[in-house]
Amino acid sequence: MTQKTLSPDLVRQVKLRLLKMHFEAGVGHIGGNLSSLEILLCLYHRVLQPTDQFVLSKGHAAGALYTTLWSIGELTDEELKTFHKDGTRLSGHPPVGSIPAIIFSNGSLGHGPGQAAGLALAKKLRGEPGHVFCLCSDGEWNEGSCWESLIFAKQQKLGNLTFIIDVNGLQGFGTTKEVADLEPFADKFRAFGWRAVQVDGHDIDSLSASLTPSSKQKWPRAVLARTRKGSGVSFMEGKMEWHYLPMSPAQYAAAVKEIESGVPASIL
Fold first, then answer.
1. Inter-residue contact 213 to 162 (CB < 8 Å)
2. Helix count and strand count (H, E) for the chain
3. Distance from C-alpha of 228 to C-alpha of 217, rounded to nearest angstrom
4. Superfamily of domain 8-261
5. pLDDT surpassing 80 at residue 2
6. pLDDT digits 0-9 by tens, 159-182
7. pLDDT tens digits for 55-107?
8. Which of 38, 89, 100, 224 is the most buried (most CB within 10 A)?
9. Phi and psi (nearest 5°) for 200?
10. Alpha carbons 194 and 94: distance in angstroms, whole number
11. How is the chain split into domains, by residue range?
12. 199: nearest Cα among 230, 174, 222
């Protein structure tokens, strides 16, 4: 994939399109989509190469993936209008088969890390170039299958594998600290023999530097992207309910106003 420009203005445009798409569809999961949007934009505009592969394990962030693909011309505006509607190929969780960029269907959490590890091993066994990236949620690491994938990838010395964890601190039933506290998160990856770095998940330049793999990389690595659920919309940020809620017309108008102006908007 050729490197594309990723300006603050483009990030803002994609956020607005993401909000519009979710509002028109009347669906939730907007909080976790906003937390992961810069990660996906950075991957598709700055990091991914033609021989690389990507797995979206946190399937509820499908909207952020679709609008990212829209930003590079892989999906049209008319296609985004079909999001979550009958007969669409843009379902609420990513479907396999109709969009080339989507290798696996995901929605049930904990599957993506193992799938990505399998892709990385296949590349290694075939002597194929390229890197495999997998974007996970932090709550997803309550799943034992995620930790099994760490053991497998380390044993197979999959230096062509990177897990990105969207660490927004919230999951379906509360904070990750309340539900199953995994901190210090990075140290747990290191204990499994992985390289682990932490980065601001909303800082494009820091993300680019952290996500770009080294040709000398010998071991799998984890990039823990510290993010904010509902990032960019003050009344959503850090609020668990935005894992679920669709936006009302007033909330949508306030969110758009804030993204466009950068000034926190109030809602009645």
1. yes
2. 10, 7
3. 29
4. Thiamin diphosphate (ThDP)-binding fold, Pyr/PP domains (3.40.50.970)
5. no
6. 999 999 999 999 988 999 999 999
7. 999 999 999 999 999 999 999 999 999 999 999 999 999 888 889 999 998 88
8. 38
9. -70, 115
10. 28
11. 8-261
12. 222
- Lookup result for tokens 């590349």: 123
Contact 109, 166 (CB under 8 A): no
Q: Looking at the DSSP assignment, which residues form a beta bridge with residue 170?
A: 175
Give the gyration radius of the chain's Cα atoms: 18
Find tokens 């660490």 and name the residue.
Answer: 167
Nearest one of 237, 220, 211, 202 to 48, comparing CA atoms: 211
User: Which neighbouring-strand residues pair with 134?
Assistant: 55, 163
| 3 state SS of 8 | helix
Among residues 87, 67, 83, which one has the least CA distance to residue 26?
A: 83
174-175 and 170-171: which strand pairing? antiparallel
Do the Cβ atoms of 31 and 64 come closer than 8 Å?
A: no
What does the block give as tokens for 268? 């009645």
Q: Which amino acid is at 231?
A: S
Residues 6+ away with beta carbon under 8 Å from 168: 31, 32, 35, 137, 138, 201, 227, 228, 229
